[in-house]
Amino acid sequence: MPEPEPQASSSLVAAVERTAHAAGVYVEQAAAGVGVTQAEAHILAALARSGPATVGALHERFGHRRSTLTSVLDRLQGRGHIAREQRPADRRSILVSLTPAGGDAAAVVVTALDAIEQRLVDEVGRAAVAEFHRVAAALTRLARG
User: pTM, whole model, 2 decimals?
Assistant: First the structure.
């Protein structure tokens, strides 16, 4: 079957927005059993995959407004999913880590994300996924100026 022709570049951002929304709905539904929102699920998955992170690193990774990120972290901490503590080497910096309950919740999210990513690779191939990563990184860089 021939590949579809690329759409005009003016529709690329709209396609990315639709895709991000669909992926967000998927994550929210997959995480419904652990009672977290889409934003919370992504934070849990990031901490599960990369280990503890500073608030600044999470802000850089996700691009949330600082107040939004603080609210997300407050909710996760209130549910016992994360712990925040000052870093001994830099007391101005807060380190965020998963608690055991947060690790359990994160495992549900990571499993769902891994499953859909594997289905995507099976459908379009690793090369297409790698190219998408390249395009997404460029779009992010350009959008941030």
Answer: 0.82
